[in-house]
Task: inverse folding
């Protein structure tokens, strides 16, 4: 189901879990105003419906040394379904690739890659990316500073948008 019906309690649960997935069920239930059993049932339903994909732990890349975040634009020789699938399968196997998007415009794909240093970037590009079947052009840009990074979706805004509402919140 693309747009399941979510009530205010579901939205509170999702908001709290997006910001801290390590909350115990008891703590989550207290924050959303439910007893633990119905709260757990709602979380299980959100997982079963596919709204909650998985729970993760975010790591601080700075704690791992001089980590570079690099955006790489990739153009393929041909954009046939088979070539796209081959490229996507290869990229999915590269641990350095944090994100990969099929794009419109000048490049076919945009990758966000995290590597230790410039030497590791060179090795990734030369030994992995450039050797991937169908790659015609590779352009890289270094991120100098991360100005904003978030993983939490703007749930309320997306819900309002899908219901045809403007940016203002309305009563439910």
Result:
């Amino acid at each position: 189901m693309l747009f399941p019906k979510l009530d205010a309690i579901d939205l509170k649960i999702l908001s709290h879990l997006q910001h801290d997935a390590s909350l115990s069920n008891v703590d989550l239930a207290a924050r959303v105003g439910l007893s633990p059993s119905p709260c757990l049932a709602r979380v299980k339903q959100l997982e079963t419906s596919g709204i909650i994909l998985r729970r993760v732990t975010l790591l601080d890349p700075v704690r791992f040394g001089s980590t570079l975040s690099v955006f790489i634009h990739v153009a393929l020789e041909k954009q046939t379904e088979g070539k796209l699938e081959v490229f996507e399968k290869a990229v999915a196997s590269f641990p350095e690739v944090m994100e990969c998007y099929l794009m419109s415009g000048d490049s076919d794909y945009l990758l966000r890659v995290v590597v230790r240093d410039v030497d590791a970037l060179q090795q990734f590009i030369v030994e992995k990316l450039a050797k991937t079947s169908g790659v015609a052009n590779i352009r890289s840009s270094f991120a100098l500073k991360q100005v904003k990074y978030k993983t939490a979706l703007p749930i309320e805004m997306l819900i309002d948008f899908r219901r045809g509402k403007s940016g203002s919140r309305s009563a439910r």
About this structure: Residues 166-172 have pLDDT under 50 and may be disordered. The first strand starts at residue 68 and ends at 76.
